[in-house]
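Shift notes (night). Ran Dynein intermediate chain 3, ciliary isoform X2 while the centrifuge was going.
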Amino acid sequence: MDLTFPYEKKRSEFGKQCMFNDRGPELIDSCPSSLRVSVDFIRRNPVNTGVQNSKIQAEHEINTYRAEYSNALMNHVEGGWPKDVNIADEEQTKRYRRKVEKDESYAHIMQQLCKNMENCILQNNAINIYQQYYTDVEPTPLTEPCTARTVNVFQDQSSLKRPVTNMSWSPDGGSRVIVCHCNLVYQANIQSKHHHSYVWELENPNTPQMILNPPTQSVCIEYNQKDQNSLVSGQYNGQVAVWDVRRGNEPVDFSVMECSHRDPVNSILWINSKSGTEFFSGSTDGTLKWWDTRKMKDPLETLILDASKSEEQSISNALGCSILEYEHTIPTRFMVGTENGYVISCNRKGKAPNEKMMARYHTHYGPVLALQRNAAFVKNFLTVGDWTARIWSEDCKESAIMWTSYHKARLSDGAWSPTRYSVFYTARSDGILDVWDLLQDQHAATIGVKISDEPLTKLKTNEGGRLICVGNQIGTTYIIEFSDNLSYSNKNDKALLTAIFERETRREKILEARNREIRLKQRTARSSTQLAEEQVDTDDTSFEDPNVVAAEQEFFAIIERETKVEEEEEEEEEGQENLELLQGFDTEDEVKP
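Came back to this:
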């Protein structure tokens, strides 16, 4: 409504009053028709004429006076004290209280207030304000729908379609993401123009912000979480490269070929160090190497993944590394996923190789494709391989505490949510991204999103929790955003998840103890049978196999039982014949007289 300003004026200031009266019409002028003028016009037939027969109405707006309100606050913790009374001075407040209590109207006012207060207290006692009505009706759960939407799509700029092998979010809040493409087909003839990796801005999906140009294909690449301009990458030929985006799109430094890996570098991660320049890499050649970006000629340390208990490690017995896991809150410990389906828990502080590789878990039938610790529960880690995803505890080495059912499509990657600790993601080869929430359902995925028709190869979660980066087989990268109930934790989520993990860990420990007891009984029974066999005098017809000996004993027992039955039957037949003969002799003696 527009603002109006009323203009007021006295009637006397309008001038002389107008006086009106009735009078007849007056002809002022007349224009007769002329036939000569009609030549210039055309007769219109038919003629449409509009007549308004309704009442004419007018709209007026009036702006009334507005009441202005103001909010005022008062602190009633210490009561309404006068301005001249200092609340902090105890003696001054006591004096004022005594002054008020000596007032004659004090008792009368208190009596009136007590009557009102007593009425309120009696009402509260008469009515149960905590009574639950409709207890027989089940409350409807207030569940927020789980949603997901595609924010951006990044296409591979190369004419040769290469799968996405790794991605990394920038540490400046996830405004950029670097995508690594590599064709891992053995002895594939890949030209140098198809070696590029791309740095994308989330707000610009049309052109990459920077194109990295390595001399060979990059299999994996990672941002330095302490420096957003520093990167390291693992190459297809086994070398590791150091990048500085401020110095162009070429690598700053390379590792020496003689000291590098012999197979493609499958995983590379920064480690927590004082200088912030150390990282380590793993390859399918069975070795782990620690590096420093300031000195790339030689690795700082090399570990051969030989899980045998022999003192000397051999590269021929080493297990190929498929994935690495490093938690910055545990700087000396890391985990290695191998191609044989084993996960090895390692400690870098160990002196001997056997001390460095502390524990081993048989997780999957094929290579371990994803391995990550939970952000809130570092003892529990997620593994993805073959057709399942499994959750393990470091205290249970024989079996996982939780696992998904076997999918029809092969799983390719998985990761925990960094902000909602009960949620993890799995990527499938049929193009579906599954989201699992352990607090909602442990038997089926909470939501499944069809990302593309091509198989998904890699996924990476953002530290904010809402965004996730997913890559497929033809090099397309998708940025997916999930709803708040899948991204952020509630107040009691951590306590509930703790109870779930402790319960499942306790159950697996009980089952492991029972299995150990059964194996011990079998071992003792086997050793006792072996001792009994050694005490028996061995003949030519004796056998060392306990199954053969048991079959022999059973055979002879059956023969003895059958011979006893036959002898009893023969004795019964002889007894019946003797009885019949005796009866025949008695009848002959009776006939003779």
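Helices lie at 90-101, 105-126, 353-356, 493-535, 546-591. The longest helix spans residues 546-591.
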